[in-house]
Amino acid sequence: MAETLGEIVAETLLETVKIEERNCPGGMKLGVITLDAPKSLHALTLEMIRAIDGALVRWASDDAIACVVLQSSTDKAFCAGGDVRSLRSAVFDQPGVVPNPQALAFFAEEYRLDHRIHTYVKPLLVWGGGIVMGGGLGLMAGASHRVVTESTRIAMPEITIGLFPDVGGSWFLGRMPGRSGLFLGLTGAPLNAADALFTGLGDYFLRQEERAMVLDALALAQWQASPPANHQQLNRLLRGFSAPVSMLPVSEVRANFDAIAALTQAPTLPEVVAAIAAYDGESAWLQKAAHSLDKGAPSSAALVWAMRERTRHLSLAQVFQLELIVAVQCCAHADFREGVRALLIDKDNAPQWQPASLADVSATYLDEYFVAPWSKHPLADLPI
Q: Which residue has the higher pLDDT, 67 or 7?
């Protein structure tokens, strides 16, 4: 029996990831990766990271694969981040071990995947509807075609758990308009679809309800053997599905851009933090952001500032290499364990940070986060 267009001709099913190949005209195929862990809002595990990366590696050298789609199985979330509960447990199981083997494996393979997405030659579409947080944004930020919808809710709230905006955050936050990336890193303030378009985290605004129609259209598209031509084909297709601008919500970042610039214009971190804390304007979004910074880990705020300074002139690969050092060191410090406990385990939202204030974060203490705990970097082979 002849294969029909759009038919799934190859399928790999894991408990949390579905990998498919769909027929397209002219013998070309569409690669589709679907995150399927709805109870955790598709939070990434090491098994999921390996499955996604393995598919991308295979498809990169498969001339029949014209385009790749990365999505989730539900509308509520694309990906709510990494599985930080398991990471915290691993850190407790092997106290004092630096780097923690499980943390190192998770972050190293996650960042390698994120770097691959940033540098993928074939068009890669990420459907970023619903919640996109932390590691989910790592998957989305580097894709060639990023769709946001009316339900998109993006955040990098690592300051609430004693981490820092990783997964390339040190790269894309620094490339946002003005000093908005610094503000978002310090506060973990949420973004909607309009914010994503304004800050450069999204490319196309589509209706969430049209996702299945878009996938069908991709399976019927006239793809070619040329990746540049296929990038243009995907551009045209997504523009054809674009939702009216009138459906976009108000961009809080755009609306408060001048205020953000004023709050972050000081040359030192303590001055910037004090300015944000003293905000007394009418924006509820800015008020909530200031509250999040006030309740967040002082060590995380210091890391956001330090990473912004240290990565200013680094390549993408160098950014991921530095982030890996800092991430495994975060796992060796108390604030990460305490932040996950307070937010996700005991849920008392009363973390006891150590150091307890920004004034207590000494330069010597901060330098500990930038000490590589290995002789050869696990990501030394990333192309620079």
A: 67
